């Protein structure tokens, strides 16, 4: 670091073993960009002070994670249109003191899904399981990217309805309770798990009954801890095409990198670094270390 080094970082609470610092710092190093990324545990009551700190310390920007993605909005100067529609911010850019909020989660997901599965979005009838924060980003971006149809199923049906209303202007949309899934399954071509069901340590749980998994279906899971959830394993065994949550994580970071640097991100390097972090093979700086087999958080 020197006086010219620009800082970026992550605001969350807690931030735990985040894999973003290693992924972003590896990308800055590889491209010779004089920027450094660090994770900051920001208590909710201190969020406004922390945002003021972005200006005072001339950070180039930050990523924002749980629990600040919605709470940060009133402290920003401007919101990108997609972030406004999602109702949450995961990336802030400091444009000479003006703080602009973006959301790269949804676009990161769509980029990863299309690149890694090769599917054509207008031909898909997607079943979105869940209606929480991640579902909002994914559903809004899929709808804005021209997905054929969206069926949103959630344990709390009211939240599915609210999300369906958010995206109805872009595509044919339905909101249903989990019990109604069987009625819709014959027409569904793409299943997307946006719930935390199946995430470590509840690795034996599945958000969809196994009998619906079949060849021809694409099954996507936002969970990346573990990388192959029980849902994806069973889907693969049933002959479905599978897509895991690592690509979303990598591409949301790559899009944030581009917003901060104006340069295309080295996506393959970022993916390799994130994967090695997940396996516990590298330190927070991305340097090699002995594997400890522990699963860090995003
Ligand atoms: P969230 O806002 O808390 O939403 C959780 C969702 O899961 C809600 O729809 C909730 O239903 C549902 N749910 C939780 N437990 C359930 C259960 N036992 N049965 C049925 N539904 C259940 O969380 P989030 O931020 O959206 O995150 C969700 C998942 O996405 C997490 O596993 C997270 O790691 C993953 N994620 C991955 C990425 C990535 O980059 N790959 C990015 C963001 C999030 P109710 O509304 O009924 O409570």
Task: Please provide a written account of the structure.
With 298 residues, the protein is an alpha/beta fold. Helix content is 35%, strand content 19%. The chain has helices at residues 20-31, 47-56, 81-86, 105-117, 133-144, 157-167, 181-184, 230-237, 246-261, 267-278; strands at residues 6-12, 35-41, 61-64, 78-79, 91-95, 98-102, 125-129, 149-154, 172-177, 190-193, 218-221, 241-243. The strands form two sheets. Strands 2-1-3-5-6-4 form a six-stranded mixed sheet, sandwiched between helices. α8 (230-237) links the parallel β11 (218-221) and β12. α1 (20-31) packs across α9, α4 packs across α5 (133-144) and α5 (133-144) packs parallel to α6. The radius of gyration is 19 Å and the shape is globular. It starts with 5 loop residues before the first strand and ends in a 20-residue tail after the last helix. Mean pLDDT is 94; it is low at 290-297. The structure holds NADP nicotinamide-adenine-dinucleotide phosphate (NAP). The site of NADP nicotinamide-adenine-dinucleotide phosphate has 24 residues, from α5 and α9.
Give the number of DSSP strands.
Answer: 12
Helix content: 25-40%
Radius of gyration over C-alpha positions, nearest whole angstrom: 19 Å
- Give the bound compounds: NADP nicotinamide-adenine-dinucleotide phosphate
The strand line-up of the biggest sheet is: 2-1-3-5-6-4
Give, in order, the helices and strands: EHEHEEHEEHEHEHEHEEHEHH
Flag low-confidence runs: 290-297
Quaternary organization? single chain
Rounded to the nearest angstrom, the distance between the terminal CA atoms is: 25 Å
Shape: globular
pLDDT average, as an integer?
A: 94
Number of helices: 10
Main structural class: alpha/beta
Main sheet?
Answer: 6 strands, mixed
- Give the strand content: 15-25%
